[in-house]
Amino acid sequence: MNELSPALQDQGHPDGVCYGCGSAHPSGLHLKSRWDEEGRHVIATHTPAEEFTGWPGLVYGGLLAMLIDCHSNWTAMAWHYRAEQREPGSDPVINCVTGRLDIRYLKPTPMGVPLRLKAWVEGDVGRKTRVICEVWAGDVLTATADSVFVRVDTDQLAKAAGGG
Fold it and tell me: What's residue 1's pLDDT?
Protein backbone atom coordinates (compact mmCIF):
# COMPACT_ATOMS: atom_id res chain seq x y z
CA MET A 1 0.00 0.00 0.00
CA ASN A 2 1.27 3.43 -0.87
CA GLU A 3 0.76 5.27 2.42
CA LEU A 4 2.04 8.49 0.84
CA SER A 5 -0.92 8.68 -1.54
CA PRO A 6 -4.02 10.46 -0.24
CA ALA A 7 -6.68 8.17 1.18
CA LEU A 8 -9.77 7.65 -0.95
CA GLN A 9 -11.88 9.12 1.88
CA ASP A 10 -9.80 12.32 1.95
CA GLN A 11 -10.01 12.67 -1.83
CA GLY A 12 -13.62 11.63 -2.38
CA HIS A 13 -15.41 13.07 0.64
CA PRO A 14 -13.11 15.21 2.82
CA ASP A 15 -16.23 16.46 4.64
CA GLY A 16 -17.57 12.93 5.28
CA VAL A 17 -19.10 12.34 8.71
CA CYS A 18 -19.45 8.54 8.74
CA TYR A 19 -18.28 7.25 12.14
CA GLY A 20 -16.17 4.52 10.54
CA CYS A 21 -14.55 6.29 7.60
CA GLY A 22 -15.53 9.96 7.64
CA SER A 23 -12.53 12.26 7.50
CA ALA A 24 -14.50 15.03 9.22
CA HIS A 25 -16.10 13.00 12.03
CA PRO A 26 -14.78 14.54 15.26
CA SER A 27 -14.43 11.25 17.18
CA GLY A 28 -14.75 8.60 14.46
CA LEU A 29 -12.33 5.87 13.45
CA HIS A 30 -11.06 7.71 10.34
CA LEU A 31 -10.43 4.53 8.34
CA LYS A 32 -8.11 5.27 5.39
CA SER A 33 -8.42 3.18 2.23
CA ARG A 34 -5.93 3.27 -0.65
CA TRP A 35 -5.22 1.35 -3.84
CA ASP A 36 -2.31 -1.07 -3.37
CA GLU A 37 0.88 -0.52 -5.35
CA GLU A 38 -0.32 -2.73 -8.22
CA GLY A 39 -3.71 -1.00 -8.31
CA ARG A 40 -5.56 -4.32 -7.97
CA HIS A 41 -6.84 -4.17 -4.39
CA VAL A 42 -7.94 -1.48 -1.99
CA ILE A 43 -6.12 -1.79 1.34
CA ALA A 44 -6.62 -0.28 4.80
CA THR A 45 -5.08 -0.90 8.20
CA HIS A 46 -6.79 -0.38 11.55
CA THR A 47 -5.78 -1.25 15.10
CA PRO A 48 -8.90 -1.46 17.30
CA ALA A 49 -8.95 0.57 20.51
CA GLU A 50 -9.74 -1.23 23.78
CA GLU A 51 -13.36 0.01 23.79
CA PHE A 52 -13.99 -2.28 20.80
CA THR A 53 -13.29 -5.45 22.80
CA GLY A 54 -15.97 -8.12 22.43
CA TRP A 55 -14.88 -11.09 24.48
CA PRO A 56 -11.72 -10.53 26.55
CA GLY A 57 -8.78 -10.24 24.15
CA LEU A 58 -10.99 -10.34 21.05
CA VAL A 59 -12.33 -7.68 18.69
CA TYR A 60 -16.07 -6.96 18.81
CA GLY A 61 -17.69 -8.43 15.69
CA GLY A 62 -19.76 -5.29 15.13
CA LEU A 63 -16.57 -3.28 14.69
CA LEU A 64 -15.38 -5.75 12.06
CA ALA A 65 -18.73 -5.35 10.26
CA MET A 66 -18.36 -1.56 10.28
CA LEU A 67 -14.78 -1.70 9.00
CA ILE A 68 -15.75 -4.14 6.23
CA ASP A 69 -18.79 -2.06 5.28
CA CYS A 70 -16.87 1.23 5.06
CA HIS A 71 -13.83 -0.24 3.32
CA SER A 72 -15.89 -2.23 0.81
CA ASN A 73 -18.05 0.80 0.01
CA TRP A 74 -14.93 2.86 -0.72
CA THR A 75 -13.67 0.03 -2.90
CA ALA A 76 -16.89 0.18 -4.94
CA MET A 77 -16.72 3.98 -5.27
CA ALA A 78 -13.02 3.89 -6.23
CA TRP A 79 -13.86 1.28 -8.87
CA HIS A 80 -16.52 3.55 -10.39
CA TYR A 81 -14.16 6.52 -10.47
CA ARG A 82 -11.47 4.41 -12.09
CA ALA A 83 -13.93 3.01 -14.66
CA GLU A 84 -14.80 6.61 -15.60
CA GLN A 85 -11.08 7.51 -15.72
CA ARG A 86 -11.29 10.26 -13.14
CA GLU A 87 -10.06 11.06 -9.64
CA PRO A 88 -12.12 10.40 -6.49
CA GLY A 89 -14.08 13.50 -5.56
CA SER A 90 -14.23 14.89 -9.09
CA ASP A 91 -17.66 16.05 -10.28
CA PRO A 92 -20.10 14.56 -10.42
CA VAL A 93 -19.27 12.95 -7.07
CA ILE A 94 -19.89 9.21 -6.87
CA ASN A 95 -21.71 7.78 -3.86
CA CYS A 96 -22.67 4.20 -3.05
CA VAL A 97 -24.72 2.64 -0.27
CA THR A 98 -24.76 -0.89 1.09
CA GLY A 99 -27.22 -3.18 -0.67
CA ARG A 100 -26.08 -6.37 1.02
CA LEU A 101 -23.41 -7.09 3.61
CA ASP A 102 -22.65 -10.81 3.94
CA ILE A 103 -19.88 -11.45 6.48
CA ARG A 104 -18.32 -14.75 7.46
CA TYR A 105 -16.45 -14.71 10.76
CA LEU A 106 -13.83 -17.42 10.25
CA LYS A 107 -11.64 -17.15 13.35
CA PRO A 108 -11.57 -14.98 16.48
CA THR A 109 -9.89 -11.64 15.75
CA PRO A 110 -7.35 -10.76 18.47
CA MET A 111 -7.08 -7.33 20.06
CA GLY A 112 -3.74 -5.53 19.95
CA VAL A 113 -2.96 -6.57 16.36
CA PRO A 114 -3.16 -4.22 13.38
CA LEU A 115 -5.95 -5.46 11.12
CA ARG A 116 -5.41 -5.35 7.37
CA LEU A 117 -8.44 -5.04 5.13
CA LYS A 118 -8.05 -6.10 1.50
CA ALA A 119 -10.91 -5.64 -0.96
CA TRP A 120 -11.57 -5.87 -4.67
CA VAL A 121 -14.47 -5.70 -7.09
CA GLU A 122 -15.60 -9.12 -8.24
CA GLY A 123 -18.21 -7.82 -10.68
CA ASP A 124 -20.56 -5.00 -11.44
CA VAL A 125 -23.85 -4.64 -13.27
CA GLY A 126 -25.00 -1.08 -13.85
CA ARG A 127 -25.39 0.59 -10.49
CA LYS A 128 -24.63 -2.56 -8.45
CA THR A 129 -21.07 -3.55 -7.56
CA ARG A 130 -20.05 -6.81 -5.87
CA VAL A 131 -17.09 -6.41 -3.52
CA ILE A 132 -15.08 -9.12 -1.78
CA CYS A 133 -13.27 -8.06 1.41
CA GLU A 134 -10.87 -9.93 3.68
CA VAL A 135 -9.77 -9.07 7.21
CA TRP A 136 -6.30 -10.23 8.23
CA ALA A 137 -4.81 -10.19 11.74
CA GLY A 138 -1.15 -10.71 10.95
CA ASP A 139 -1.09 -13.74 8.64
CA VAL A 140 -4.44 -15.10 9.86
CA LEU A 141 -7.59 -14.55 7.80
CA THR A 142 -10.29 -13.86 10.40
CA ALA A 143 -13.26 -12.67 8.32
CA THR A 144 -14.45 -12.40 4.73
CA ALA A 145 -17.35 -10.56 3.16
CA ASP A 146 -19.19 -10.83 -0.14
CA SER A 147 -21.25 -7.66 -0.44
CA VAL A 148 -23.15 -5.52 -2.92
CA PHE A 149 -23.03 -1.72 -3.10
CA VAL A 150 -25.46 0.42 -5.07
CA ARG A 151 -24.53 3.69 -6.75
CA VAL A 152 -26.99 6.39 -5.67
CA ASP A 153 -27.87 10.04 -6.02
CA THR A 154 -27.62 11.27 -2.40
CA ASP A 155 -30.25 14.02 -2.93
CA GLN A 156 -32.78 11.41 -4.05
CA LEU A 157 -31.70 9.11 -1.22
CA ALA A 158 -32.29 11.86 1.39
CA LYS A 159 -35.74 12.56 -0.04
CA ALA A 160 -36.64 8.86 0.00
CA ALA A 161 -35.52 8.66 3.63
CA GLY A 162 -37.64 11.70 4.53
CA GLY A 163 -34.63 13.93 5.17
CA GLY A 164 -35.28 16.63 2.61
Answer: 55
